Automatic annotation (TrEMBL):
The keyword Membrane applies. Pfam families: PP2C_2. InterPro entries: PPM-type-like_dom_sf, PPM-type_phosphatase-like_dom. CDD domains: PP2Cc (cd00143). Keywords: Membrane, Transmembrane, Transmembrane helix. This is Serine/threonine protein phosphatase. The chain crosses the membrane at residues 7-26.
Length: 282
């Protein structure tokens, strides 16, 4: 009888373990990937990985209204506390402000207003503590890409098998590159500088003034738009990303493939990684 009880006990334990494993993988799939949104012909695919971090500080959103299709990624600064709060607050503010937008000519003021509100809100929540977030946002309206960015998250248009980078990185690296061009320092010193990846502008920064707001960009039929946090482009080379975006797959599958490639690298210091792919419909 005791042996039967022991066997039953082990069966219960194994069943619980099996159930936990199933739930674990289901949760991973839900966290890293949301279903593609397909509205008015525009496909929106997204993917996300926590990487090697203890928490997910990236936050993203997308939606479509009568004005256009909107996508945003914010990357809470992992080196500072309150990264998750900052990224969540910023994306929430931008998403709400976009829902209130009624005229296509108001995109520049929309970007500026949402950025100012986000920065003020983050600083108020920080109450003197450290924290902040990068942010990149895109709105597609009548075949035109409108965008804005702050920090080092990136937005690019993939056209004819090549990337057209929209924004610049607001990091010390950009300043060092300018010094190299002016002859103030060597290229080697710039590339090995320990502060080259430090941000010089972000939301939640006391000295924040404005975002980088780009000129409207006319899209072509086969273009694909990619928004990505640094966890994506630091893990994958431009050549690797080009290969993935060349695939004739739905935006959902391309985004999923990008995140799978990031995870497959198994980098020791892999950051949170988030990507949004938009294509067709313009």
């Amino acid at each position: 009888m005791q042996q039967i009880k022991d066997i039953e006990h082990y069966i219960v334990i194994l069943s619980a373990l099996f159930l936990w494993i199933i739930l674990h993988f289901v949760r991973r799939a839900l966290v890293r990937h949301q279903p593609t949104t397909k509205i008015k012909g525009i496909q929106i695919g997204n993917g996300q990985s926590i990487g090697r971090r203890e928490e997910q500080d990236d936050y993203f959103s997308s939606s479509t209204t009568a004005v256009g299709t909107f996508a945003v990624i914010a990357d809470g600064i992992s080196g500072l506390s309150n990264g998750r709060m900052a990224s969540t607050l910023a994306v929430t503010v931008f998403s709400k402000e976009f829902q209130l937008l009624e005229k296509t000519e108001d995109f520049t003021s929309f970007f500026a207003k949402a950025a100012t509100q986000s920065n003020s809100g983050i600083l108020a929540n920080l109450s003197g503590s450290n924290g902040g977030t990068t942010l990149v946002v895109a709105v597609i309206s009548s075949g035109i890409l409108h965008w804005a960015a702050v920090g080092d998250s990136m937005i690019s248009v993939f056209r004819d098998s090549e990337f057209i980078t929209m924004n610049s990185k607001h990091t010390v690296e950009t300043l060092l590159r300018e010094k190299v061009l002016s002859g103030e320092m060597t290229k080697e010193d710039a590339e090995t500088s320990p502060v080259r990846k430090h941000l010089v502008n972000y939301l939640g920064y006391e000295g924040f003034r404005n975002m980088e707001i780009g000129e409207p960009f006319t899209l072509q039929k086969k273009d694909k738009i990619m928004l990505a946090s640094d966890g994506v482009y630091d893990a994958l080379s431009e050549v690797e990303l080009e290969h993935l975006l060349k695939q004739k797959k739905p935006a959902e599958e391309i985004a999923d493939d990008i995140i799978e490639q990031v995870d497959a690298k198994g980098l020791r210091n892999q950051d949170n990684a988030t990507v949004i792919i938009l294509e067709k419909g313009w």
